[in-house]
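#struct-pred

JT: dropping the chains for the assembly here, can someone run the whole complex?
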Amino acid sequence: MEIKTYKSSFDYSYTLGAFPTIELLRHQKDKVIKVLIHSTFTNQNVLDEIYNLIPNNLIEYNDKLINKLSDKENVYIVGIFKKYTSKLNPTEDHILMDNPSNMGNVGTIMRSSLGFEIKNFGITKPGVDYFNPKVIRASMGAIFSLNIETFDSIDDYSNKYNKHTQYKFMLKAKKSLRECSFDKDLVTLVFGNEATGIADKYLDDNALIIRHSNNIDSLNVTNAVSIALYEYHEKRSK
Amino acid sequence: MEIKTYKSSFDYSYTLGAFPTIELLRHQKDKVIKVLIHSTFTNQNVLDEIYNLIPNNLIEYNDKLINKLSDKENVYIVGIFKKYTSKLNPTEDHILMDNPSNMGNVGTIMRSSLGFEIKNFGITKPGVDYFNPKVIRASMGAIFSLNIETFDSIDDYSNKYNKHTQYKFMLKAKKSLRECSFDKDLVTLVFGNEATGIADKYLDDNALIIRHSNNIDSLNVTNAVSIALYEYHEKRSK
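RK: done, full complex below.
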C-alpha cells in the first residue's frame, strides 16, 4: 500500500512524533498499519517501547516517507493507523462540541478532557475531521484514549443520549459555573462553535457561564472548556 | 518615516485587524503613530470609532502598506504605535511568566489575565518579545490594558516586589489549587516556561498544582494558567 500525505477521504491517518505514536500503540495497537522510524533516531527507551508493543514486521525505517508526511517539521517517528469508529459510553459522562472548526483547539480540548476524566467526546457535524494529523498532534495522543462519536446536531445527540443532563456553556446563561453542583447521575458538558457559540434556542435553566470581568468579550474557547472541565472534575471527583 | 515588516529591534510595532486596533486607540491613544485603513473596508461603526478616537491626520488609506505588513492575511485595519514601557502596580496583584517562549501562548494568557482581573503582567528574560504583532493579535488587544514589566529572573522580580505572596505552579507541588484560599494582601501567580516549568529550587509551601488524572502528563500551559486565574478570581472577588 502506498502512503500519501493526509486527506480526509483516506481510510488511514498517522501520528507525527514519538509521543502521540506511543499513545497510539498503547491504546489502539490493533489499528496500527505501520510504524516509521527515521534512521537518525536514537532514543533507546522509545525504540524499546515500540519494539515491545508491536510486531517487528510492522516497523520500517523510511526517512523519505517520514520527510514527505511530516512536511519539513522535525519528526522522527510516524505511526500509520487504520481509522476506526467508536460510540460514546452511555453510562459515563460526556463532552459535546457543537461544530468545532479549529483542529488545534479540538486536539487541545481532547487532552484536557482526558486529563479531567471525561473519556467520551461527541462532535456535531460538519465539525473538524478529528483524525486529521493536526488534531492528533494537538491532542498529544489523548485522542486514542477517547470514545469519539459524531452527530448531525445537538438534537440528534439529545435523542441518542437522553439520560444525560446537559450543561450548555453560553454567554447568555444566568447561572455561573461556580454555582453548579454537577450532582446529576449523568452529565454532558456542551460547548459551541468558536465564532457563533450555541444557538439561543438552546438556552435553558442548566445553561452556564464562566464569570469574568467585562474587560474582555469572551475567553478563548480552549481555555473556557478547560476551566469548565476543571470545575466539573473538582466537584465530581469528591 | 518608512514603516517596515516588524523586527524586535524596532521602536514601533503594529496591530493587525480592527479589534486589537480599537483596543490600542482606546487604551494607548497617545502612542499611536498612524492608523492604516484598507480602501475596501466599509464597517461604518469601526470607522466612526477610529475617527472619534484619534485626529484625522493620523489616519491613512494605504492598501499597499497593509498588504506588506499583514503578510497575505485578510487584514483591513492596522494601527502603528510607538513601543512603550510600564511598571507593575505595587499595590495590585500580579502574574509572572518565567521565560515564556511561545508568542501565541503569551497573547492568549494576557487575554485571560485581563478577563480575570490581573492587570499586572511580569515576564522574565529572555522571554518573548511581547510587542511582536503575533502576541498582540493573540491577546486580541488585551495587551494595551496591562502593565507589563520584564525582569532578569524570578529572583530579580522577588527583590523588586517583596510584599507579594508568590504562588508558583509546579508539578512537584504538594498543595492543590483548589485548597488555596488566596487570602493574602498581595498575590502573584507564577508560571514556568512551557517546556521546563519552574526550577525545582523554587519549590516551597505555597507552590500549587492543578489536580488532574494521570492519563495525561500535564495540561497545555495556556489552559493551566486560565484555570489558575479562574480559581483566583472566584476566590478574590468574593
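JT: nice. The helical segments of chain A are 18-27, 44-53, 63-70, 103-115, 133-138, 154-160, 221-236. Residues 24 and 144 of chain A are 6 Å apart (CA to CA).
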